[in-house]
Design goal:
single chain, mainly alpha, two-stranded antiparallel sheet, about 5% strand, globular
């Protein structure tokens, strides 16, 4: 299916733009963006006080490898379209551009508003985590989920 919306580069572009816009002036690695996007989409699973915008999904952790590929293509498109800025400092770092901020403000759907609110909370909640710690937290949640929630 060539024109799919869900689990597509286009969908990832929209979510990454919302996430970068929520982070305002902060620079993020691609790994951090992928981790934060995953946490936002499944907010309840990470003890954030929000309903998960992507709903319940028994196979959510299986999405991680595909998300990395989608995010790589999506961030490339955002940079090429002038919606995200890039710098090289300890690897590639990204932030929303002025054009990206303007474009992100046009997203008015219920999903976009919910995603934006969760993104702001997630950025704040996990700001003290390194990129490695954030990924480790997701992996620990995955293991606990497979064990049936046993810590």
């Amino acid at each position: 299916m060539k024109n799919k919306l869900f689990n597509s580069v286009f969908e990832m572009q929209l979510r990454l733009l919302l996430l970068l816009n929520a982070g305002k002036r902060n620079w993020y690695s691609l790994g951090r963006l992928v981790s934060l996007d995953f946490i936002i989409c499944y907010a309840e699973e990470f003890q954030l006080p929000f309903k998960s915008p992507n709903g319940d999904n028994d196979y959510m952790y299986g999405e991680l490898s595909n998300r990395n590929e989608l995010a790589e293509a999506a961030i490339k498109e955002l940079v090429l379209d002038g919606l995200a800025d890039v710098k090289i400092e300890e690897g590639y770092q990204f932030k929303v551009s002025n054009a990206g901020k303007k474009y992100a403000k046009t997203f008015k759907s219920e999903y976009a508003m919910q995603y934006r609110n969760i993104a702001i909370a997630a950025i704040k909640e996990f700001r003290g985590f390194t990129d490695y710690d954030l990924e480790k937290s997701i992996n620990e949640n995955a293991v606990n989920s497979l064990k049936g929630g046993i810590a």
